[in-house]
Amino acid sequence: MQYISFYKNRLPFKPRTNVVIYFDVTGIGMKRYYSVINDYYDRIVEEFRRGGLEFCFLPRIADDMDLYKIYRYFNPQADPNGFIPHINLYKDSDLLEYIVAGYDARYLNPGLIQYMGEDFDKEETYTYEYTPLSHFESSPISLIKLYVNHHGNTGNLFEAEDSAVEKHHLETGVRYCDAMGSSSNIAICKESLDEPSVEDMMSEVQMLVERLRQSGVGEIALQRLFKPTQQLSRIHIRYGRIFLPDYNNMEIKMPTLSKAIYMLYLRHPEGIMFSYLPDYRNELLHIYGLMSGRDSHEDIRRSIDDVTDPTRNSINEKCSRIKQAFLREFDDSIARNYYITGERGEAKKILLPREMVTWDMPD
To answer: Could you tell me which residues come within 8 angstroms of residue 162 by beta carbon, excluding any fewer than 6 positions away?
Structure first.
């Protein structure tokens, strides 16, 4: 049994024990194994699933994804009909810079690596079990079956997990399509409610980016590959709707009460501590009335009482939904300028300079 260690503070993704990664830092596997794995890819993935494992073959994952959608997630100002340069999502040598010193790359043949745990020696490292593909028979299906028999879990954990998820969503009235499948299958099959959960608000492209992160393309690599824009858009509030003119006039959608809270914070660039929200109850009620065009009903008054009560968790829930409304549309490196943020015990605020905010709404 062989092992390879990676520097913990350098590896750009968090390891998971149920993920088996195709490992080829020298590139020789492109001729010997790539075409075979690619031809049998669906069957190989299924064999891993039967053993409760997930196969990470980044060249194929990159091919299966809509990289233009992901590019626009990091660059919302891009022309929707424009051309983007080729994005090299995966290079065989990418993992070399993260391997602990002492390994001779010439002898690191193509293989499979699976996370085993952390080592605490002179420098914290992640340890992976390394299984060269040359140890197996030439048949890729026989190879995978043999690997899964030795490393997989008893029973089909993916089926058990899917059943639990399906059961939960049936109980709550929500059904999700397979988030780890192709992008065309990623969907949320629930009618929109006034206050959906944060998970309900996830967009297809957000799931794609999350899948890349979980599959070994970490935060550093994503930032390097897609180069998030440094250009911030103005915000234009038009009759209770939120538009970003410089991001192709994108509209940020969120539930009405969350939107009223957001506009309250836009009106107060100095920020508001959660403990002081009771002082802003009437202003929030006024904003809500302007947006709805009618006097607030008793249930709305009760909701505003809840959200301005610092002893309850309602304001944290609404702020999470506000944050998610922006993360649906673009990466956090951009979104953090727009949602409500702040350290514990300090005034919460929106960082965007107020000269970038225009209003087309009654006072």
So the answer is: 178
3-state secondary structure of 340: strand
Give every CB contact of residue 181 below 8 A, 6+ residues apart in sequence: none
Residue type, 89: L
Residue count of the chain:
363
Residue 161 CA to residue 70 CA, distance in Å, equals 28
Residues 213 and 89 in one domain: yes
Strands 19-23 and 111-119: antiparallel
Which tens digit of pLDDT belongs to each residue from 292-326? 765 557 777 888 999 999 888 899 999 999 999 99
> The domain containing residue 262 runs over which residues?
235-360
Whether 253 and 212 map to the same domain: the answer is no
Q: Which two tokens stand for residue 30?
A: 């492109």
Structure tokens at 105: 């790359």
C-beta separation of 8 from 118 below 8 A: yes
Helix (H), strand (E) counts: the chain: 14, 11
How many structural domains does the chain have?
2
36: its two tokens = 């075979």
224 and 302 housed in the same domain: no
**pLDDT > 80? residue 190:** no
**Same domain, yes or no, for 224 and 293?**
no
Same domain, 169 and 260: no
56 close to 22: Cβ distance less than 8 angstroms: yes
Question: Distance between CA 17 and CA 128 in Å, rounded?
Answer: 9
If asked whether residues 323 and 343 sit together in one domain, one would say: yes
Angle between helices 140-151 and 41-50 (to 10 degrees): 20
Query: Average per-residue pLDDT in the chain?
Result: 77
CB-based burial, 146-168: b 16+ in 10 Å, e otherwise:
ebbeebbeeeebbeeeeeeeeee
